[in-house]
Amino acid sequence: MTNAAVRTLPSLDLVSDRAQARVRARYRAETRFKFYGLFAIGLTGLFILVVLTDIVRKGLPAFTQHQFVLSVRLDPAEIDPNNTKDPAAIRQGDFQALVRNALRSIFPDVKDRIGRRQLDNLLSSGAADRLRADVVADPGLIGQTVKVPVLISERADLYYKNFSTRVLRQAGAGTATPSGTSGEIEIALSSDNFAAVRRTRAELTLTENDPSRLIAINGGLVKLTQIGDTKTAGTVLLPLQSDATAAPGAWQVVTFQTPAANRRVNDREVAWFERLRELGHVESKFNWAFFTSGDSREPELAGIRGALVGSAITLFVTLIICLPLGVAAAIYLEEFAPKNRLTEIIEVNINNLAAVPSIVFGLLGLAVFLNFMGLPRSAPLVGGLVLALLVLPTIIIASRAALKAVPPSIKEAALGVGASHQQAIFHHVLPLAMPGIMTGTIIGMAHALGETAPLLLIGMVAFIVEVPTGISDAATVLPVQIYLWSDLPEISFQAKTAAAIMVLLLFLFVMNGAAIAVRKMFERRW
Amino acid sequence: MTLAYLGILALLIAIGFAFGRARAKAAGAAGRSLHSRPVYHGLFAVLAILLPMLALFVIGLPVANRIVEAQAVAQLDPATATNELQRGAALREIRSIVSGRPSATATADVRRAAEVYASVRGYADMLIVGAGLVLGLLGLALGMRALTDQFRARNHVERAVKYVLFACATVAVLTTVGIVFSVLFETVRFFDRVSPIDFLFGTQWSPQTAIRADQVGSSGAFGIVPLVVGTLLITTIAMLVAGPIGLFAAIYMAEYATPRFRNFAKPILEVLAGIPTVVLGFFAALTVAPAIRGAGEALGLSVASESALAAGLVMGMMIIPFVSSLSDDVINAVPQSLRDGSYAMGATRSETVKKVVLPAAFSGIVSAFMLAISRAVGETMIVVMAAGLAGNLTFNPLEAVTTFTVQIKTILVGDQEFESAKTLAAFALGFVLFFFTLTLNVIALQIVKRYREQYD
């Protein structure tokens, strides 16, 4: 040993407490790290869940609609005074007035102009549409009294969907004696029903910032303005049948929990709503009109039919343009393209085009299709063209992958028995690649269905009531309809937006499901 | 007219196909040997009819339109149609009269012009349809003459098919060219009015140009710095959300997840990627923004109802799938041998990921992030619905900011005055947006390509 300083290896410390603590720390770090990953995925899943439940919660009310069932007398004087039975003449009749009168006849006590107008406003401006159609179809109904469902206003509908206020009823303690049957009256109570409301005050004046307190007595309803320990005063909303003393339990204390200042319906309207419900005039049904009518400024009349048809026409245009184009381009690039600069440029181009922001395609559509070529604005034709260019890269890439997945032996066998190159491709390779191409196409179409931004720029945002019938009619599409509605302040439109989103998501879900099904059904492993 | 022409075209094509194929079949039945199968004979006849007729349609129709319009305009009083604009207006009026919507304001010479227009149009239409018919029949005759037994019909047809395929492949290139030109032209015109220096470095954005020159703000201000800052702010928030979550999700999926878990978790990410952005915009505007506002008020902060935070958070959620699926691919491409080496040294899995896999995949992950950023910058609906309109120059995520895409949409939706600086400004914004995202994409795709080559 010449070298005095022998380097000894540092002894490997594996058993001391410090070493074990170190190992434990490393394993803890490992667990933590793994947890971060799980957390990230969980967060994403949670986000989707929150988005979907939020939308379903907001959208479900839009699928039901309330309506009044009224007995309407089809007065010949009003709709067909000359007894012509001519549909054109009948169509001109003031059916709205008939429906209004039917509603007024339920509340004969409402004689003041304001009250009548309020009562009329419970009905939708399209309340009589159904009745008119029925009578035009069957003029024999004129002169009869028919029971028909009539559409009610948005506010009334929202009330029945519990958006306005909760109504609490409580049997009254002691007896109650009203001083009259209409107008401003006093009600003497034998026991103190409002101690909790009054707290320490001897007398309380109710304002519209307080929850409304009412007394239902003798078939009428009185809105209280003054509350004392035994003596209360108020305004009659629904007339009383008599001013007899009501026995304990025979009258009720009613509370509209939301103060009148915080809701869009006043106490009188709430009283009418409740009375109509008690009389069985209100029924709730599935809102088919949402699917069968076009857009409207009136929330209760607005539907998505126009947008659905617009989407269908637009997607049809997209499909017939981009499917042949995309498949042809894919076949060329995969099978026939020589390896040169031009081919390389095309390939790089397609990859980059796939990542161009969609709104830029809108600029292209605006500048080229509208301003340069002079195609019509707002038309599904232009929308379809723009979307076709937008999803073209997706379809080309998917089709190339599908073509590439077909084993070369198929093509070689065809060539071997004397087929030309094109015969081998079109007769043998392409049919085998078709399932993959279809899958890619469906996914591309789903993408096109959800696309909004480029369509905004080519004018598909116009307010369009009519359902489009051709590729050059002004139209809108489902996502744009969603965008348009989401901007409107009414709660009902909010619900309709969410409902339209549910329909859109359902379509996307079905399309993606179809893509998976096609893949599963025809998938072939070589 | 168009319909009649296409009808004749379709009819002739059908006849040509039937003729060509039938004759070849007859020849085959007679025992003569053919070079091509009968169907190619039919297709060749179709080509012989289609090409000349299509050429006439594409070239002849615009020429005819030009002539008809020139004839009609010539009838107008030269004093009332001095410039291009007036002539255009007169032409529109003429067209609407001809199509059966008589206009009450039309002057006598416009009416006369409309009559001329209608009659010349009639002649031109007849001429084109007639010429098309002659050309088609001529094509049919010549094609049939060329179709002998030994004629190489298949080769001709296949060459034509190849050209068609090539033309389809170039549509993608034409689209890009179309995009570049449509934004470039308008941008150049925009820079005639507003200097590029003001555009790029101005800190004021208010494109509302007043109608009269003496009104306040008559010039409009077109400085994009507030938009750049706004876009940057929202994108940064989005990437702060999507970066870590997407990356951790990708690491878990690539390194830890069992195949069963993968099968379950992958669709979740795909669902998120498939939700239309208008839906997320609705969620951002009506749920997230009020929630943030409420939370901010509870903490005593003033939060704008269209805060950058709300838009940024939801946009971040939207781009998680991009980050995670791209990173997942990249991590999976790291060779297993590197991991095995690390395990052999005694490293735990997380240590291997942190010290070996991620450094090896670094360039790929960078490119994934770049693609995600380009996606976020170009995203429109979420910011349109949840971000503001005013160009505030602020880095405060609780205030409302605006972005490129919001401004493009705001300027171009609804009635636009053509030729105004405001409308052109939208195209200039589109130009900046397009080239910014294009550059990011090109660089990112280049990095990915080089990265793949590294481990292949």
CATH architectural name of the largest domain in chain B: Orthogonal Bundle
- For the record, what CATH class of the largest domain in chain A applies? Mainly Alpha
Query: Radius of gyration of chain B over alpha carbons?
Result: 32 Å
β-sheet strand percentage of chain B = under 5%
Give a concise summary:
The complex is a heterodimer of chains A (526) and B (456). Chain A has helices spanning 17-59, 76-79, 87-92, 95-106, 113-120, 129-137, 154-160, 195-198, 267-278, 289-292, 305-336, 341-353, 358-372, 380-405, 408-416, 421-450, 453-457, 478-486, 491-522, and strands spanning 64-73, 145-151, 167-171, 176-178, 184-189, 204-205, 212-217, 220-227, 231-238, 252-256, 282-286.
Textual characterization of the structure:
The complex is a heterodimer of chains A (526) and B (456). Chain A is of the alpha+beta class and 526 residues long. Chain A folds into 3 domains: 62-160, no CATH class; 167-263; 305-522, MetI-like (MetI-like fold, Orthogonal Bundle). In chain A, 53% of the residues lie in helices and 12% in strands. Chain A contains 19 helices and 11 strands. In chain A, strands 3, 4, 5, 6, 7, 8, 9 and 10 form an 8-stranded antiparallel β-sheet that branches. A 3-stranded antiparallel β-sheet of chain A has the order 2-1-11. In chain A, helix 1 (17-59) crosses helix 19 and helix 14 (380-405) packs across helix 16. Chain A is flat. With 456 residues, chain B is an all-alpha fold. Chain B has 2 domains: 2-151, no CATH class; 221-455, MetI-like fold (Orthogonal Bundle). Helices cover 77% and strands 1% of the residues of chain B. Chain B is built from 15 helices and 2 strands. Chain B has helices at residues 2-29, 38-74, 84-98, 108-146, 153-193, 196-201, 225-256, 259-274, 277-298, 308-332, 336-344, 349-378, 381-386, 404-412, 421-455, and strands at residues 205-206, 221-222. Chain B has a two-stranded antiparallel ribbon with strand order 1-2. In chain B, helix 7 packs antiparallel against helix 12. The relative contact order of chain B is 0.09. The mean pLDDT of chain B is 84. Classes of the chains: A alpha+beta (526), B mainly alpha (456). At the A-B interface, helix 1, helix 11, helix 12, helix 13 and helix 14 of A face helix 5, helix 7, helix 8, helix 9 and helix 12 of B.
